[in-house]
User: Fold these one by one.
Assistant:
Number 1:
Amino acid sequence: MDLRSLSIEELKNELVSMGEKPFRAKQIYEWLHKKCAHSYDEMTNISLDLRKKLSEKFEFGAFEIVRMQESKIDGTRKYLFGLGDGNMIESVFMRYHHGNSVCISSQVGCRMGCKFCASTIDGLVRSLTPGEMLGQIYEIQRHTGERVSNVVVMGSGEPMDNFDNIVKFIGMLTDENGLNISQRNLTVSTCGLVDRIRELADKEFQITLAISLHATTDEKRRELMPIANRYSIKEIMDACSYYFDKTGRRITFEYSLVSGVNDSEEEALKLSKLAGPLHAHINLIPVNPIKERDFEPSKDRKIAAFQNKLEKNGINVTIRREMGRDIDGACGQLRRKVLQEP
Ligand code: SAH
């Protein structure tokens, strides 16, 4: 197990079983989760002996930066990290007016098979541990020297397919002994695993849940997202209203606009009928073309008409500002590129 995946309670139990005082847990936890330490060597108020004992039992779990690309357009940075077992994952650092945001991966690869997404092309390798999800934020905060205030789980992988680890991650990210990020500043995005959405609702977190909808009928959705064969839009909407009732948090629908596929005004109207009763917020994303597929983003004029139709129907809508297009910004692009290099 990696040391960064231990909750403060688990760390306390480990230390006590090693014959240490419980207060050491807080010190070590702070090194890991507040000061974003990168190795046992940095824990200067912990005895060499204890550091050695810990290192015999736990991998530290720090990453190396395999590659970092910074956008010349907007300063967005894409990081490719190397994990202890040789796998690689991507994370993105974005600067906004309201603070710095990091987009993290939840799995190495993905098994959901969405047609426009690069992360899923070679399937799922494995899920990330809570420490590996946190680690992406810590490494970026360390490397940039800037505080991260918002986190979105919208990188590679399906977070609801890594449920227990995501739940633990949420607890640790928002723990006052760690980065202490507010639950309201965390967004988790899912392609719509209905049973897990309900389970997450039962946790009553104050996070934002984003649903990748991308279509307004089951037929169309099945063309884009294999998960639509498993769950209908109706089932997703029911789970969303359960989520809203349980948590009081408005859902976000993500809708990637693909030219000629899902960007008609008729679809905008259908989408407003889905979003309206839930008071859902809609985030339109012009699809980011990947070289393995021939999806093209909708034209600006189409996007504007789509947005207009939603607004006229009283729907709260934003167009996702494109960031990092020049740095393989979309899910899974950089990892694929590097894996294909000789
Ligand atoms: N598996 C989760 C989270 C990862 S993807 C989910 O499905 O929500 C984050 C968002 O980016 C999803 O809405 C996904 O459908 C979308 N996405 C992936 N690749 C994209 C691309 N090339 N262009 C536009 N949106 C994309």
Number 2:
Amino acid sequence: MPTHSDSLFNLKVFDHPLIRHKLAIARDQGTHSADFRRLLNEIAGLMTYEVSRRFDTRTITVQTPLEETIGHQLSRPVTLVPILRAGLSMTDGVMQLFPEARVGHIGIRRDETTHRPVTYYAKLPHDVGDGYAIVIDPMLATGGSACAAIRYLKEAGCRDIQMVCLVVAPEGVRRVHNEHPDVMVHAAALDRELDSNAYIRPGLGDAGDRVFGTIEV
Ligand code: PRP
Ligand code: URA
């Protein structure tokens, strides 16, 4: 079960031993892209079970080989919304549990001088507001990118939005709470702080570069 942080009421941190184990390997600078991607997807899959706990279901009739019985079916569509690029690294893991989910994409890059988000792409299902939206991004640092993505989804009609992250900084969680108090953030770890470059410490470096092998040498 994820636990609420004492002062960050919109944050649930997963203290599961498997998630901690995998996160430690992902943080290691010696972990290569292929393993990094696999681990992020595995962690995302483990988190999805809890993230979806309060999704509505409707009762349906099911014919077993022996008799008719009552079953349950998710009653509203689920849309996964990875923030490009790094959000793609956790999307397959969530999708394993929601094979019928739709995937909307929001492309946001953080300007590394101002640390402000720059939105460069967006494509959502036309009826995204009818169901649940799960915003996916491994890193929540200043919270600028997350808030921009959530704002975009709300403008598209979404009323039920959650975030799935890997590592979050207190500053970013607070910002999401201030701007979008209705949005719960789920994370594998709450890290200590942001540094002067707005990188999460101890963090894991630049997630997008580690996922896609674009680290400059
Ligand atoms: C990273 C990360 C988040 C954002 C977090 O993306 O994946 O989207 O930074 O920072 P913030 O909370 O301060 O906005 P980046 O801009 O590096 O783009 P990328 O995924 O394409 O590498
Ligand atoms: N983006 C990342 O990929 N890592 C950080 O620590 C902060 C922003």
